Request: fold
Amino acid sequence: MEFDQFSLCFLVAKQDPPEMSPSEAGVLQNAHMSHLADLHESGELLAAGPTGNPAYRGVCLFRTEVERARELMLADPAVAAGWFEITVIPWLVPSGAMSFSTTAFPRSMAEVKPRPGQ
Reply:
């Protein structure tokens, strides 16, 4: 059996994140989201989103080798600023088991629609 290889990146909340004002945090969040949108548009990032878990804040699925995914996420403004640490691992899936399509990733919180009940 053949396998497709992906890379999973977990965004882990740092124990000692930098202190910043709500305005500064908003700017950084938007820069983080814009970075992910750029990676998706490039075709390297297949999917990404928050987990709702306070320790594991988000997951990114890449169509790249682990080292390339790590390089891309180290360039994320939220990682570079010390909001998150990253853990990147390979993930093997039987060939053809998964397919993805390009969609629009939000580039800022202003583009995110709240879910019902939030």
